[in-house]
Every structure is written in C-alpha cells, then in structure tokens.
C-alpha cells in the first residue's frame, strides 16, 4: 500500500513538472486565446499585418475592428504608429478631393469613416478614456484647433472634425455628451475666449469672433446633425451665459457676415432693411430653441432672447425685426406678438404689425397671413376697449408712416436706388392689400350670416 501511494505521488509530480515545462516553453505574448481571436492573421508577423491594413479602406478596417477584442487592440496600436497616422489622419483640408480616391469622394467622408473606426475600437473604454485616446490621436492635426489654421475660411478642417465627432458620439447618452462638451470647452479654453467676445465692444475682436463662429458651426453644430443633437449642443453653448450675452453669442454664430472676409457685420440690422439670407441663420436657431427638441428652453426664454437680440448691438430697424419673426415661423411670431398684447404694449405691437404687412408685400408673402395673424392677436386682448385701441394704433401707424415717407420723397431725399420712393410705393401697396384682405374677411362673414 505504501509503495503504491508513493508511486502515485511520483506520477503526479511528473505530470505537474511536464505542465510547468510546457508553460515555460511558451513564447511571451503568444497567448493561445489571443492567437485564436486573430484567426488567419495569427500566422502573420505584426509588420505584415499592418502592411495588409494599408490596402484596406477605412470602412473595411472599421468592420475588421468588430471581429474580436484582440484585433481591435492591434488596430489601436496601428492607428498610433507613424504609418497609421499618415494613412488615416489626412490633412489636405484645403482641397475637396482625396488623392488616389475615386472622383467625388471627399475628405469629409473619410473622417466620417474614421469616426466610426475609433468609435468601434474604443467601445469598451470609459468615456473619459475614449476622449483622451481620441485627443491623443488627433492632437497633431492643427486644423482641428480653434486657432490652428492660417486660412480658416478656406479650410475643411473644423467640418471634418465635426463629422468625426458626430459619428463618434452618435447614440451616446446625455451625460456622456455633457462630458464631451466640457472636454472640448476646456481643451480650447473656450470659456475665456467667449467671455472676451461677449463682453467687448462688438467688432473689437473680429478675428476671435470669426474663429468662435467657425468652431461652433463646424464642430459642435455640424451640418447634417439631427435637430435634437443640434439643440443639445446649442443649449450647451448658450445656457451658461446671461440673456444679454446669449443674444450677443447667437448673433456671432448665426448673424450676417461679410462676403469679403467672413467677419460678423454688426451694423447690418441697424443701417437699413436687410434680406432673408442675412436673417435665415438666426431664424433657424430660434426655431431650434423653440422646438420640442430643446427641452431646457421655455417659450418665455425664447421670446426674451428674441427681444434681447433685437438690440444687438443697438436697436434694429423695425422692418428687420418683422422679417426675423416671419422667418421664425407662425408659433414664435404669434407668441412674440401675444406677449406684447398681454403686456399692454399696443403702440409697439401696431408698428410691428404694419411692418409685417410691409415685409409680406416686399417679400411676396400672402397678405392674408398677416391679417389672420392680426385676428389671432386680437383674441388675446381681455377687453373690447384694448382690442379697439390696438386697431386704432394700427391705422394711425399706417397713416404716420405714409406721411413720413411722403415727406422724404417730397424733400428730395434720394439715393442711387431711389429707396425713399420705393419704400413709399411698397407701403401704399401693403396698406391696400392688407385692407383688401380685411374686406374679404368681413364680406365673407357677413354673407355667410
């Protein structure tokens, strides 16, 4: 019995020694599970594997990254190499076409695919680590920085960065997106720079205004983003500031700019009537904040912002106020007018209504829209006297404006475009068409009774 027990113990020791010997003979870093995760690539040296990647498109590499965690790790190492960086971090941002690619393929598409690749490669990392890794990869691209490009108006760098981030963060929850915003904001020291432009005299920091505009529009408010995403990023940009600074910042990002040098034109709304093109960006931003996607904004917030905007940098011409409201949509327009009716500002409301009729005439909108809007506003007044007082102010405004314009024409106040006579012509037609629509409504309702 003793001999048998000793023999079994000796056999067990020998088996243990053989297993230990097999473990000690393994090549360092050649874990069988990791090798099996590489599939057929396990037979290739790392250098050959990376050479194969050079023949794959970025989309194909992105798909490959989903095969296993081991391959994903190898791809992360490849991206960090000098050859991987040269291959993936294209920096020809001042030309729309990529060398060696089929005609029509843009550098924006390349960075969209790169965003998906890094999204998949960093899938298992915490948000903070993902952002640090992405920043490490992209830190060498100067055109991705606020002041990184010497010719920002002719550069696609910030737009490429924007579509990259758009794909990278797609599907992330709100808390993660907050971290992304804070990371970018701190990285570029944007809080201090925005503070400079919203507290300085308008136009005194023109280059910084332009840089902030291009960065916000290209990176955070990337064209093609979902409305909910755009509302989130715009809210993050505006909400930390007081209302007066919000209005200034909104004008910097979406207001009219010079076609010559791209700088913000601060006097555009003050010097004379402007066109729809100059106001469309502001109107779209207001509609975005007023929509259901922007949960942190109430109707009162948006109305206050529009009110504050109309005095940036000084009080706008009333015609430009009216045009902005028309472009912002029915809901915002009515809410803005109704707030003036509720607050007893009948004279101001009447002037705004007259200018809306004038804009409808000039911009070829249907005049019955203005009349129906007036009808809705009249229902807001709590007493017949208030409503009648508003209608009286409306007619008085038409009369006073006609007399003022007629005096300007008779005084010979003319410029190259003869704008005084043209304004009088438009206002006379606006009044006639406005009252024509009222007569149609009155006669239609009387005949139906």
TrEMBL record:
InterPro entries: ARM_FBXO47, F-box-like_dom_sf, F-box_dom, FBXO47. Residues 38-88 form the F-box domain. Signal peptide: none annotated. PANTHER family: F-BOX ONLY PROTEIN 47. It comes from Melanocharis versteri. Residues 1-10 have a biased composition (Polar residues). This is FBX47 protein. Residues 13-25 have a biased composition (Basic residues). It comes from the Eukaryota. Residues 1-31 are annotated as: Disordered.
């Amino acid at each position: 019995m003793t001999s048998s027990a000793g023999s079994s113990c000796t056999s067990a020791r020998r088996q243990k020694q053989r297993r230990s010997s097999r473990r000690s003979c393994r090549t360092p870093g050649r874990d069988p599970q990791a090798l099996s995760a590489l599939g057929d690539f396990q037979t290739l040296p790392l250098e050959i594997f990376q050479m194969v990647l050079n023949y794959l498109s970025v989309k194909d590499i992105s798909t490959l990254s989903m095969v296993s965690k081991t391959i994903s790790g190898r791809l992360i190492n490849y991206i960090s190499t000098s050859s991987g960086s040269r291959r993936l971090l294209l920096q020809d941002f001042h030309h729309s076409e990529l060398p060696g690619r089929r005609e029509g393929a843009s550098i924006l598409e390349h960075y969209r695919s790169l965003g998906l690749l890094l999204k998949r490669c960093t899938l298992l990392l915490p948000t903070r680590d993902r952002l640090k890794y992405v920043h490490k990869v992209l830190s060498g691209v100067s055109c991705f920085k606020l002041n990184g490009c010497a010719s920002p108006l002719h550069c696609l760098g910030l737009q490429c960065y924007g579509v990259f981030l758009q794909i990278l963060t797609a599907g992330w929850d709100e808390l993660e997106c907050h971290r992304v915003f804070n990371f970018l904001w701190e990285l570029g020291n944007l809080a201090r720079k925005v503070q400079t432009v919203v507290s300085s005299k308008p136009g005194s920091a023109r280059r910084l205004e332009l840089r902030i505009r291009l960065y916000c529009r290209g990176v955070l408010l990337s064209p093609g983003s979902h409305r909910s995403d755009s509302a989130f990023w715009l809210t993050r940009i505006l909400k930390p500031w007081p209302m007066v600074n919000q209005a200034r910042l909104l004008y910097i990002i979406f207001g009219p700019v010079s076609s010559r040098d791209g700088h913000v034109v601060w006097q555009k709304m003050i010097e004379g009537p402007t066109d729809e093109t100059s106001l469309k960006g502001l109107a779209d931003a207001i509609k975005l904040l007023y929509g259901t996607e922007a949960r942190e904004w109430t109707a009162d917030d948006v109305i206050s912002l529009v009110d504050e905007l109309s005095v940036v940098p000084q009080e706008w011409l009333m015609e430009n106020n009216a045009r902005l409201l028309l472009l912002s949509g029915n809901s915002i327009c009515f809410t803005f007018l109704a707030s003036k009716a509720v607050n007893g500002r009948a004279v101001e409301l009447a002037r705004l209504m007259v200018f809306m009729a004038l804009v409808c005439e000039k911009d070829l909108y249907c005049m019955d829209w203005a009349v129906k809007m007036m009808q809705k506003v009249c229902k807001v007044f709590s007493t017949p006297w208030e409503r009648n007082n508003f209608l009286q102010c409306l007619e008085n405004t038409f009369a006073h404006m006609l007399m003022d314009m007629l005096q300007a024409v008779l005084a010979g106040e003319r410029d190259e475009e003869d704008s005084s006579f043209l304004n009088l012509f438009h206002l006379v037609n606006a009044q006639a068409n406005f009252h024509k629509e009222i007569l149609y409504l009155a006669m239609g309702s009387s005949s139906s009774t």
